[in-house]
Amino acid sequence: MDEGTILINQQVYKLGSEFIVQSPKTQTGTRLLHAPEAVIAALYSQYQTQRNRQIILGDAWINTHDLCFTRDTGAPLAGYHIYSAFQRTLKTSGLPSIRVHDLRHTYSSHAIRLGISANVLKNALGHENISTTLDIYSHIFKSQQEELATTMNGILSKT
Q1: Which of 31, 52, 80, 148 has the most CB atoms around its CB within 10 Å?
Q2: Which domain covers residue 12, as residue numbers?
């Protein structure tokens, strides 16, 4: 989290009763992201919380992969822990229920609407090929094309 960046270099999934920590699926999945100050501050606070727990638990701390979000013991979080906490947060915030993965789509949709290029978005999402990004978000890019045509109509009608 140096200088407003976040390094994405591992993923966690559960296989049976065991947690697997490994590198992202593709080479481009490992990436350095620039993040808003509020996100960096929240992650730093979480990091401090983790360090305090580690000091208190000593040898009982089991976060061997330096994960940012864990159970109180340092063990990885199962998907249902993340889902339940996320749903509680949405409910207390008065927001509709969505899947955690929907945050990725929301982020992407807003980025496209703000004019972020498909290539920059591809890199942020860790997609190996730009075609993946374009295939998933083509409907949003299409609305941008319509906006471009409308804008160009306005410019051309003035000449």
Answers
A1: 31
A2: 1-85
Place of tokens 């063990």: 75
- pLDDT > 70 fraction of the chain, expressed in percent and rounded: 98
Quote the CA–CA distance of 109 and 5 in Å, as a whole number: 21
Residues 129 and 60 reside in one and the same domain: no
Q: Considering the domain boundaries, does residue 67 fall inside one?
A: yes
pLDDT, residue 152, reads 83
Residue 27: its pLDDT value, please? Answer: 86
The answer to the question of residue 93 being in a domain is no
Which residues, at least 6 apart from 123, have a Cβ–Cβ distance to it below 8 Å?
Answer: 28, 31
Structure tokens at 94: 């008065």
Task: Please tell me whether the overall predicted TM-score, pTM, comes out greater than 0.85 for this model.
Answer: no
Tokens of 10: 């591992």
Q: Which tens digits make up the pLDDT trace of 75-119?
A: 999 999 999 999 999 999 999 999 999 999 989 988 888 889 999
Cα–Cα distances (Å) from 125 to 19, 115, 121, in that order, read 23, 16, 6
C-alpha distances out from residue 41 to 5, 101, 125, 151, Å: 11, 22, 21, 39
As a three-state string, the secondary structure of 28-88 is HHCEEEECCHHHHHHHHHHHHHHHHHHHHHHHHCCCCCCCCCECCCCCECCHHHHHHHHHH
